[in-house]
Design brief:
This protein is an all-alpha fold and 117 residues long. It contains five helices and no strands.
Length: 117
């Protein structure tokens, strides 16, 4: 489950921040590596990486469905970490590096004005 979580977080971050990181001259992302290795366009690489994210989510859900030696509270923490990062990089935008109104509203609704239980 940890490996699948890392796949979701890493690939979503790379897809969302690919162009921004290129402009800054940063290290190659998984998008660039995939393009180079398979000689495909940027959009084709992103599409394949999105499929890998979906597969990783399936792995996470399968881990939660089947009994394991790990306690459920630990697995829930991993799940919540993955969910949070999914929100950070949703819509193929890096809401962490470019925290605008949408992300601010999200944090406010979760932490400042949560739904009553």
């Amino acid at each position: 489950m940890v490996k699948a979580s890392a796949v979701v977080v890493r690939l979503m971050d790379d897809i969302a921040g690919h162009k921004f990181e290129q402009e800054r001259g940063r290290v190659a992302s998984s998008v660039e590596c995939f393009m180079e290795q398979y000689r495909v366009t940027e959009e084709e690489a992103k599409e394949e990486l999105r499929k890998q994210v979906v597969d990783a989510w399936k792995d996470i859900k399968e881990e939660l469905r089947c009994p394991t030696i790990f306690p459920m509270p630990l697995l829930e923490r991993i799940l919540n970490f993955t969910r949070f990062n999914h929100v950070l990089y949703n819509d193929e935008k890096d809401h962490y590096s470019h925290a605008g109104t949408k992300f601010k509203n999200f944090v406010t609704s979760v932490l400042v004005n949560p739904l009553p239980m």
